[in-house]
Design brief:
Layout lengths: L1 E11 L5 H11 L3 E6 L5 E8 H11 L7 E10 L7 E3 L4
Parallel strand pairs: 2-5
Antiparallel strand pairs: 1-3, 1-4, 2-3
Length: 92
């Protein structure tokens, strides 16, 4: 069963390769969705996959790349949209 989560990640997460790390990690885990920087300094991502793998991704996202300092991840349960890959989107 595919689930989806919309994540708002706050902390020191811009300018530290967090989006690239997210793309690489999501693809390794075979998740689909997207990631983008937010004008407020947060990172926003949408992930879809099995519950086990999405949960694993969120756990890994608490750390992110070495230079990141994640303070909080707010995860909202959302309906899967059926994405076919994982992409980096422009800042919103």
């Amino acid at each position: 069963m595919v689930i989806a989560r919309h994540l708002n990640i706050s902390g020191h997460v811009q300018g530290v390769w967090y989006r690239n790390w997210t793309v690489d990690t999501a693809r390794i885990l075979s998740l689909v969705g997207w990631v983008r920087n937010r004008a407020d300094g947060n990172v926003e991502t949408w992930v879809e996959g099995s519950e086990e793998v999405v949960t694993r991704f969120i756990t890994l996202a608490q750390e992110g790349p070495p230079a990141a300092r994640v303070v909080q991840i707010l995860a909202q349960e959302v309906e899967p949209q059926g994405f076919t890959g994982f992409e980096k989107r422009p800042t919103a």
